[in-house]
Write a structure and sequence with these properties.
The protein is of the alpha+beta class and 204 residues long. It has a single domain (3-203), classed as Sandwich (Jelly Rolls), CATH 2.60.120.10. The chain has five helices and nine strands; from the N terminus they run ααββαβββββββαα. The strands form two sheets. It has a six-stranded antiparallel sheet with strand order 1-2-7-4-9-3. Strands 6-5-8 form a three-stranded antiparallel sheet, with no helix packed on it. The protein starts with a helix and ends with a helix. The relative contact order is 0.22.
């Protein structure tokens, strides 16, 4: 999301009541993510090594003390993924060439296309988390009226938005240079992302 949306969300977070670290731990389910590797389809580069990670039901959002978007936002922030936003997902194919992205579903359901038009359409619901490595094409296909996503980014990297095939040559070079995150946005420094992305990188 554009910087203005991140600033708007930051201001909101300053006045929110959010869960502490111990409460967050109790709300997170230690799930093994599904891994989906998308190849370059000629339009969307996707990532040459790292797969998309899909955590099903990763967060228990039934807390009566905190809104679901606050829980997910705080979880990502605690694990070192910041610059967050809260909204829906764009309904046109786009990808980020200089940064990885995580999206946690706070409310509702949706079908999100990942990997470009030749990729997969994933059905997600509240509590699910998607981790998209740099270069992964994504767009919203359809959603419930109450659909709400919390998005965030690791500390390293710069937000950008690629939609034009003319950008491909330079974008592919940038994607290959994006560093692996230091933490898993759901499970922190001991989360499976670190091993899964290292394992994929070693196969290339």
């Amino acid at each position: 999301m554009p910087i203005k949306d991140q600033i708007k969300n930051f201001a909101k977070k300053l006045v929110e009541n959010h869960p502490d670290t111990a409460t967050l731990r109790a709300l997170v389910r230690a799930r093994k993510p599904a891994t989906i590797h998308f190849r370059d389809d000629g339009i969307v580069p996707n990532h040459p090594r790292f797969p998309v990670l899909l955590y099903r039901g990763a967060v228990n959002l039934r807390s009566r003390r905190f809104p679901p978007d606050v829980i997910i936002d705080r979880l990502f922030d605690t694990n070192g993924w910041g610059r967050s936003w809260r909204d829906t997902v764009y309904d046109f194919v786009h990808y980020h060439s200089q940064i990885h992205e995580v999206m946690g579903v706070a409310r509702g359901t949706a079908r999100i296309e990942c990997g470009g038009i030749k990729g997969w359409t994933l059905s997600v619901k509240a509590g699910d988390v998607l981790v998209l490595p740099a270069g992964t094409g994504h767009r919203l296909i359809e959603s419930s009226r109450d659909f709400l996503v919390v998005g965030a980014y690791p500390q390293d990297g710069t937000y950008d938005e690629c939609t034009d095939t003319k950008e491909r040559p330079d974008a592919m070079k940038r994607i290959a240079k994006v560093r692996k995150p230091k933490t898993d946005p759901v499970l922190g420094s001991g989360g499976p992302l670190l091993n899964l992305w290292r394992r994929e990188a070693s196969r290339s």
